[in-house]
Amino acid sequence: MAASVDDVLQVRRHQPTRLEGFVDASFAFAVTLLVISLGHVPASVSEMLAALRDVPTFAVCFVLIARMWRNHRDWSRHYDLDDAGAVGLSLLLVFVVLIYVYPLRIVFSLMFSSLSGGWLAEHAIGIRTVFELRAAFVVFGLGGLAIWSVFALLYRHAGRQHAAIGLSAAERLVTRVLIRRNVAFALVALLSVALAATLPFAQWPATIWLPGLAYLLLIPAAARLRRAAARELQALAAAP
Amino acid sequence: MAASVDDVLQVRRHQPTRLEGFVDASFAFAVTLLVISLGHVPASVSEMLAALRDVPTFAVCFVLIARMWRNHRDWSRHYDLDDAGAVGLSLLLVFVVLIYVYPLRIVFSLMFSSLSGGWLAEHAIGIRTVFELRAAFVVFGLGGLAIWSVFALLYRHAGRQHAAIGLSAAERLVTRVLIRRNVAFALVALLSVALAATLPFAQWPATIWLPGLAYLLLIPAAARLRRAAARELQALAAAP
Amino acid sequence: MAASVDDVLQVRRHQPTRLEGFVDASFAFAVTLLVISLGHVPASVSEMLAALRDVPTFAVCFVLIARMWRNHRDWSRHYDLDDAGAVGLSLLLVFVVLIYVYPLRIVFSLMFSSLSGGWLAEHAIGIRTVFELRAAFVVFGLGGLAIWSVFALLYRHAGRQHAAIGLSAAERLVTRVLIRRNVAFALVALLSVALAATLPFAQWPATIWLPGLAYLLLIPAAARLRRAAARELQALAAAP
Amino acid sequence: MAASVDDVLQVRRHQPTRLEGFVDASFAFAVTLLVISLGHVPASVSEMLAALRDVPTFAVCFVLIARMWRNHRDWSRHYDLDDAGAVGLSLLLVFVVLIYVYPLRIVFSLMFSSLSGGWLAEHAIGIRTVFELRAAFVVFGLGGLAIWSVFALLYRHAGRQHAAIGLSAAERLVTRVLIRRNVAFALVALLSVALAATLPFAQWPATIWLPGLAYLLLIPAAARLRRAAARELQALAAAP
């Protein structure tokens, strides 16, 4: 029987390299700066309670950034690459994450604030114009596009080095699936950006949800790629 | 003779993994931001002296966060787990610690400020309403509940993997004791939260100390679990 | 056939030492503080959009600091030195980088701001006097001079320890080339400083570009050193 | 012939442990926060030039904190201890360093500011009262006392574990010398504190320099301990 998609890739290294030390420290700072609002030590109990209203926003942003970190960690552990391509793409990932820490926080703060009527946010952030709404979705979508593109490039880089790394046939297949998956996700982000840039929000107010709802496409996309990968893995295991 | 409870668990790894690098950098950043009040470089000797009044608050918060770090370090060294459960629970621990850095500081600043008549705090923080007092205790207690629950889950996760890790019978016993200990501590925090939420502070002012005094229960709870564990270890060593 | 200049130096170590952990954490912190404007969490979508105008400035500064980090990483991996000289020079590098994080940002912010008519910068930074223009170039040039001098010293230190490290003849040759390269770059920075300090900007306004254009000399200098090194490597490989 | 005092201690470990990762990250943050004035990004060239006046202060503080880091690194490399005592004393060192980052900066800013007539400091910090002058010296001296005492305890801890570590007779001798050296330095700091607290600054203005000049005693103390250690090492080597 074929192995499941998740445990095909072997762990090739446990100890971090310097590149990973740099990446880990940067991600650790990014989440710390996300959660600990600097220059903003609460000076009274009521300020502390107000600051805690941002916890749902922090939680979502923390989960998103922690998942990116985990994906990079798994990439490193599975492929054990430390060459110029790995360094360049990893540093690009750090750069995109650092640029997006605050926009991420704004977008989710906005979402929780509007969903809760302003309660779930220390400072209610309002969207004042249609332009601002478009801009928030476009910036968020470009961030997703950038992150998923970098991961697609990281997996492509690993796939090209398969001989040097010593990837098995099943591992090469899973690597190709991961490239496809990140490309598909990047395309979903691109679709959301296109919708945000072109939909007539002012005339048809109901369309303002569409750029956000577009991200729901990630779920069937992931499921479909997963099923296809399981079939291919089975075929590979069945082959003589 | 049976070994004491403390030195039953063997050290299985000395070198940090990437997960631990991430956790360590986050904890180090958290304590640094706790102690170094950002955006607040003292600009004169008198401001420096004022800032030093916060040292007792910093010391207590530093000790608490450093102990959490040490417990996580020991957990990693003893069980050497680096799987999805270890990653998820460790990141959850980092998130809870980051959320609680400033509330912790506020609560102890409040405590030292009121115990010293406002002297031991750079800015005297007053409790203005009964609601604020309740809220401070509830937030603090929920933090304790979260931290101890995460540690109980970490030890439960290790206990379940005992075969893969290769825990001895004595080590499995100590792991169970550590689960019980963290559950007991989490229940003490829950009791404090319940007292803070329900006691009639306004009518009986003397009750305002009870949610804080509830934490004294940690001492007999720890002692009792320790004695029970020593007896069980002895029984295990005596068994054929 | 002789190997190319880039892959002559062997990797002697993959795992970081404590010195490198310290250097990496400092660099990671420096780029994080560069990109995440502290004490400046955007509070609205329009503030977020304004902050994103600084992205080109961040990108250039990030690339420059990331390259310094990468050069230090390669130096460590190739020479595997952890003695007093390595510690002292590495800490000096960290110090110079930390001192220069904000000046670097100012200089590129100024450049993008003036190239784009004030659009590519959150806060348009203007040069008000000839003295300020001179000063910006002098500070920037002294930074380059310091960084390249530290790298020249690092390579000289490695070259002197060639017997202890076990450098091959080709590796010693490449080490000498890297010393020369960093000395040449430091001299270019020195030339720019001299031009900025002495050119009659007020009388001949066209000369204000010269201290910046001086850095274009880095390109032919690098190319020429590269060609000379390739020739020497070939001669070495051809020698009996 | 006997080895010199400096190279008696053997390096027992190169790779950092988690404790050291935590200590290194904390020291890296401390120096970064020292140098990069947070919440204070210069917004013009003249502000940048003003900020650069603090460079001498930063340099001295950086050197002092980097030396403490280096001493801790050497302690770890030479004794390779990772037990409860090592963890507790190392965390205590981190705490004292974090508490002292800003006071250190104030004291040297004050010194450079007064030596240069206010030029070498972004914001001239004046001492307004005799009490403030006493306080600055007392705070600075207590910091030195704390740091040197922690190092004395670290070396004492290592000396006690000599059998477990496997220290040679010469290494035990050097360990004892390092305890004495740190105790002697702590006593110099204590002398400076006593002078600052008791000297009649108001009546005899010339005495205001004495608490600072007391630190010059470190030089003969270090030289004398060094000579005594060299003699003892020679005697040890000569013994049958």
UniProtKB/TrEMBL annotation, chains A, B, C, D:
Subcellular compartments: Membrane
Classification via Pfam families: TMEM175
Membrane topology annotation: Multi-pass membrane protein
Reaction(s) the record says it catalyses: K(+)(in) = K(+)(out)
Regions crossing the membrane: 21-42, 48-66, 87-113, 133-155, 182-202, 208-225
Keywords: Ion channel, Ion transport, Membrane, Potassium, Potassium channel, Potassium transport, Transmembrane, Transmembrane helix, Transport
Domain of life: Bacteria
InterPro entries attached to this UniProt entry: TMEM175-like
Family: Belongs to the TMEM175 family.
UniProt-recorded name of the protein: TMEM175 family protein
Natural source organism: Dokdonella ginsengisoli
